[in-house]
């Protein structure tokens, strides 16, 4: 038996694949390489190049590799860009999830861990986000992730009386950073860490997108969580679904202590040894002021913990990026 990782050639997915392999759960990857890299897939791991929108291909992959469950990481993950590309976002994240669920039903696969997002909350008016807060997404990306969670819920209800009832959980998180393997690093053209790294490598001054947010230093505050911790939580969720253990419909993978973009910039200069004063650019559409979650439920059920300091997050990400040169 194996576990299929959609988007397993991407930054987060490739870390999930490695964590699955380390836990003795045989991973299989499907990825269209629109943002992933074939080189991120470890040697010996079956890799199917293709889109999750291809129901026949996904169904065939599930059957041929005797897949027990799916960790669904594939998707279009850029909140700001989703404001100008809503139809593409919905195609990849909503239709993609629907097709994966249909393929699972066709192949008799009944377990799924869904990579969701803290963007489902929008801009919460609380200090710490809990799972039961109202969902008010501020971008098409956040909306698409919330709809994905609804799809899982509704399919679970629809299959409850069958011999293959869908068992699922969704993991919500925001800024994933760092690296757990020097062969894998964040190549996104939109995420903060790679943007800063590329600027420093090229001798440019990094930018802060907006310094007029309603936060102590004017820059937005987020949960910055290490990718290795995120991957580990996905694997524990898969193991618990496979064991038949009860899980909540959704978990926040939060740090409890948010970091501002300016604090991240300070750590970048400190760790890389490159002294700089960031430029201030306009806000990005769809970016809320603050999202910080507790992670208490995930700590209880998924062995969730934050094992990395901000300097370690920067160091591991920087070392992996430099190793690629």
List key phrases describing it:
Rossmann fold, 10 helices, seven-stranded parallel sheet, 2 domains, 14 strands, alpha/beta, 325 residues, UDP-galactose 4-epimerase, domain 1, three-stranded mixed sheet, 39% helix
Describe the structure.
With 325 residues, the protein is α/β, with parallel strands linked by helices. It has two domains: 2-176 and 225-252, Rossmann fold (3-Layer(aba) Sandwich); 177-222 and 255-323, UDP-galactose 4-epimerase, domain 1 (Alpha-Beta Complex). It contains ten helices and 14 strands. It has helices at residues 11-22, 55-64, 79-82, 86-107, 140-158, 192-202, 227-242, 261-272, 296-302, 310-323, and strands at 2-6, 26-31, 47-49, 67-72, 111-115, 167-172, 175-177, 207-209, 221-222, 224-226, 250-252, 259-260, 279-281, 290-291. The strands form four sheets. The chain has a seven-stranded parallel β-sheet with strand order 3-2-1-4-5-6-11, sandwiched between helices. Strands 12-9-14 form a three-stranded mixed β-sheet. A two-stranded parallel ribbon has the order 7-10. β5 (111-115), α5 (140-158) and β6 form a beta-alpha-beta unit. α1 (11-22) packs across α7 (227-242). The protein is globular and about 60 Å long. The relative contact order is 0.15. The mean pLDDT is 95.
């Amino acid at each position: 038996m194996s576990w299929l990782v959609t988007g397993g050639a991407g930054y987060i997915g490739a870390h999930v694949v490695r964590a699955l392999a380390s836990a003795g759960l045989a991973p299989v990857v499907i990825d269209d390489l629109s943002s992933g890299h074939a080189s991120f897939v470890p040697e010996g791991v079956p890799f199917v190049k293709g889109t999750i929108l291809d129901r026949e291909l996904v169904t065939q992959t599930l059957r041929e590799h005797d897949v027990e469950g799916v960790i669904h990481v594939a998707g279009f993950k850029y909140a700001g860009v989703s404001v100008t590309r809503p139809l593409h976002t919905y195609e990849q994240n909503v239709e993609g999830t629907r097709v994966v669920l249909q393929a699972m039903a066709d192949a008799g696969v009944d377990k799924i861990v869904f990579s969701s997002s803290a963007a489902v909350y929008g801009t919460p008016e609380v200090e710490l986000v809990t799972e039961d807060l109202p969902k008010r997404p501020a971008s098409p990306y956040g909306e698409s992730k919330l709809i994905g969670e609804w799809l899982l819920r509704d399919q679970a209800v629809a299959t409850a009386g069958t011999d293959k009832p869908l068992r699922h959980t969704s993991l919500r998180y925001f800024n994933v950073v760092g690296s757990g393997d020097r062969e894998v690093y964040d190549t996104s053209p939109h995420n903060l860490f790679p943007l800063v790294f590329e600027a420093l490598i090229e001798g440019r001054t990094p930018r802060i997108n907006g310094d007029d947010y309603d936060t102590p230093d004017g820059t937005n505050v987020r949960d910055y969580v290490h990718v290795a911790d995120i991957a580990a939580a996905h694997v524990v969720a898969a193991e618990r679904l496979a064991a038949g253990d009860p899980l909540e419909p959704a978990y926040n993978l939060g740090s409890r202590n948010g970091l501002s973009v300016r604090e991240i910039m300070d750590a970048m200069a400190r760790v890389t040894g490159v002294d700089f004063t960031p430029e201030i650019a306009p806000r990005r559409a769809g970016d809320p002021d603050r999202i910080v979650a507790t992670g208490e439920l995930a700590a209880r059920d998924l062995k969730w913990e934050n094992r990395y300091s901000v300097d370690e997050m920067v160091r591991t990400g920087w070392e992996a990026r430099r190793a690629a040169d």
